[in-house]
């Protein structure tokens, strides 16, 4: 028993002697740990704190993404370390690692600047700091851009109107601005306000509609049934007691009126289509200019619709008068009519030969018409065929003049009507209806709409958040600059 107790006491003494050793060794390693901690606190922690602060400010709600930090290593260099074995403590592992790199016959040759856990930790901190710092300039740029955008948008928001006079002044400014925009779109052909909306390019769309209208009009004189049947029927009914071989003007006018009536729906359809488009354009412009005042939007929309409808009625009446003028008489000063008629009449002799000579084929080619069958004209209609042919050729020659006038007159009318709408009628009519008969609508403008209030509040909150974020970024970027210069 005595020996055992003595042995135990000896072991305890040894333990007491050995126990300070790890403490002493640990304290020797502590400066390395302190240096690592200091480096972390100075280089990495501020960057992480800045990102965390931005995340707390909810900067990501402004569409600005923050970096997600994941350190995966760096292939540009390497660090040699000793892995911990079993459950050995950090202090024990550090001791063993240092001893290994000091005493091993091969590992001791490794440069101490690339060996050991502290070196690895320092390397990883540098990678982490560089990764974060690389993202920060872009984040700072996006914050500044978003802040400037929101400040500009808030400045463009309408100010609260304090009196009816202010509301009237704002209404007149909105209507005047809308008129100027319409002048650009419908008269001058400028579309910088709507560069990517082709439907808002007024002059181009109206020109397209005019081209479609021109193509819808029959370029050739419309004909129904067998060749010259219509002309012969009308000539029979237009006969009177008079000298022979004189074409009755009534027959020509009657046939002309019939054909003009057949195509009369085309100009009316074009005018309706054009004014529907102008109305769409006017309403879109007014809606955009008055978007901050819903009560004014509704009022100007109604006034604009009334104005366009008035112009539409005038255009319908103008189309009616243009068509009536074409049906009233036959006249043109164009030499093309005479030249074309003379050219077409050169085929009258060959045509009459086929009519009288029954031995010849019944089909014949006629200029401007093509191949026709004349078998139905032989015998009974031989006497009136010559006058019918002359009348037909005159109508074909004259039809070019009719179509040209219908295109030119309608095009000039619609251009003039649109110019009158924008330059003369728009501002006065809208202002008179909005201010003159809608005083209550002006008073409603004094009440800021909930939509505008919510938008202002949202912008103000966003601006405050971005300003705080800018301050955070400013401090950290200054710190990075100072560290870089050091």
TrEMBL record:
GO terms for cellular component: cytoplasm; membrane; microtubule. Residues 301-328 form a coiled coil. This is Dynamin-related protein 4C. Keywords: Coiled coil. InterPro entries: Dynamin (IPR022812), Dynamin_stalk (IPR000375), GED (IPR003130), GED_dom (IPR020850), P-loop_NTPase (IPR027417). It comes from Platanthera zijinensis. Gene3D superfamilies: Dynamin, middle domain, P-loop containing nucleotide triphosphate hydrolases. The keyword Glycoprotein does not apply.
């Amino acid at each position: 028993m005595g020996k055992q107790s003595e042995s135990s006491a000896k072991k305890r003494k040894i333990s007491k002697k050995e126990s300070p050793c790890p403490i002493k060794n640990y304290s020797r390693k502590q400066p390395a740990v302190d240096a690592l901690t200091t480096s972390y606190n100075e280089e990495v922690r501020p960057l992480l704190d800045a990102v965390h602060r931005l995340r707390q400010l909810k900067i990501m709600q402004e569409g600005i993404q923050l970096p997600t930090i994941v350190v995966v290593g760096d292939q540009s260099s390497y660090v040699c370390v000793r892995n911990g074995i079993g459950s050995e403590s950090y202090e024990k592992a550090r001791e063993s690692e240092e001893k290994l790199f000091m005493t091993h016959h091969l590992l001791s040759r490794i440069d101490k600047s690339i060996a050991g856990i502290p070196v690895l930790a320092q390397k990883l901190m540098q990678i982490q700091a560089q990764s974060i710092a690389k993202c920060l300039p872009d984040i700072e740029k996006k914050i500044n851009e978003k802040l400037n955008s929101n400040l500009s948008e808030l400045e463009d928001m309408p100010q609260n109107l304090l009196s009816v006079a202010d509301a009237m002044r704002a209404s007149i400014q909105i209507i005047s601005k809308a008129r100027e925009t319409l002048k650009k779109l419908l008269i001058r052909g400028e579309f910088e306000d709507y560069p990517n909306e082709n439907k808002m390019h007024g002059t181009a769309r109206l020109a397209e509609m005019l081209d479609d209208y021109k193509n819808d009009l029959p370029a050739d004189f419309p004909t129904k049934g067998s060749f010259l049947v219509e002309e012969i029927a009308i000539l029979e009914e237009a006969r009177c007691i008079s000298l022979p071989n004189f074409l009755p003007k009534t027959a020509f006018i009657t046939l002309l009126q019939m054909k003009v009536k057949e195509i009369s729906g085309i100009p009316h359809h074009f005018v309706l289509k054009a004014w529907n488009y102008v109305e769409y354009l006017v309403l879109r412009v007014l809606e955009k200019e008055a978007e901050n005042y819903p009560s004014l939007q509704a009022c100007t929309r109604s006034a604009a619709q009334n104005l366009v409808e008035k112009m539409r009625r005038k255009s319908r009446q103008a189309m009616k008068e243009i068509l009536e003028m074409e049906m009233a008489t036959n006249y043109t000063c164009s030499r093309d009519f005479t030249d074309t008629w003379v050219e077409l009449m050169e085929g009258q002799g060959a045509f009459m030969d086929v009519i009288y000579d029954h031995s010849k084929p019944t089909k014949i080619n006629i200029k401007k018409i093509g191949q026709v069958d004349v078998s139905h004209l032989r015998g009974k209609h031989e006497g009136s065929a010559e006058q019918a042919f002359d009348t037909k050729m005159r109508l074909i020659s004259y039809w070019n003049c009719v179509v040209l006038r219908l295109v030119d007159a309608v095009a000039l009318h619609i251009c003039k009507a649109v110019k009158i709408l924008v330059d003369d009628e728009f501002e006065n009519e809208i202002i008179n209806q909005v201010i003159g008969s809608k005083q209550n609508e002006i008073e409603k403008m004094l009440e800021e709409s909930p939509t505008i209030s919510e938008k202002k509040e949202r912008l103000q909150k966003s601006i405050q958040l971005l300003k705080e974020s800018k301050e955070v970024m400013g401090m950290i970027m200054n710190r990075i600059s100072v560290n870089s210069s050091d």
